[in-house]
């Protein structure tokens, strides 16, 4: 083969490989979520810039669940919530403002981000539809066994130093037992935290996924809230660390129930609240 032909072939291969790697933009090594697959996942945005900052989930038409570190120090006026769409869009009309922020009183970022959970009370009613539905909470203190299959959804960076994804991504993960989680991180984590990743690393959460949900596979039950991870993202042997939702169901029920706005929560197989969610068409 002539040198010019070999050069042309090499350049062609290089362009193909570069395009392949450039288009492999996901929450670390995930895939694009199917339309309507996670109708309860919402985006927290900085109201001034319209930029995505964290993930979150709809609990009902007036309440959103997220991580404390996503909103601590923020005022309600600084946060907007985009709902009902898997594509981030600055000019969306599916946007609701926040009326109040409730950070768990025990939240401590200096103590391995213990109690990293917060509730946002919305200023306006979010109408439920096929693209906007409430997430189901687990039973209080429900145990999730190690090796359970789970899925993470979010718009976070595809890698440390990467870019926020415009379309919602998902990745299949494995839940690690509390003992294995602490052993992999080489420090004792809190019993109110849960870990998920893959043993070989390379899949999991990154910046921008914080506050988003970890769900049992083939379920709408949220077992975790993205809290923190070692950097660079998805680095073995360290699985991502999540707030374990089942440890906070009582706090969620109490906080939501203290509001004067009638609202309900899906908890396990029961509906808790003064009126159940509207039937979805």
TrEMBL record:
Main location group: secreted
Molecular function per GO: serine-type endopeptidase activity
Domain Peptidase S1: residue ranges: 27-257
Keywords: Disulfide bond, Hydrolase, Protease, Secreted, Serine protease, Signal, Zymogen
SMART domains (UniProt xref): Tryp_SPc
A single BP term in Gene Ontology: protein processing
GO cellular component term, pick one: extracellular region
Key word Protease present: yes
Signal sequence bounds: 1-18
SUPFAM superfamilies in the record: Trypsin-like serine proteases
UniProt xrefs under InterPro entries: Peptidase_S1_PA, Peptidase_S1_PA_chymotrypsin, Peptidase_S1A, Trypsin_dom, TRYPSIN_HIS, TRYPSIN_SER
Signal as UniProt keyword: yes
Localization terms from the record: Secreted
CDD domains to which the protein is assigned, alphabetical: Tryp_SPc
Domain of life: Eukaryota
Protein name: Peptidase S1 domain-containing protein
Origin species: Drosophila ananassae
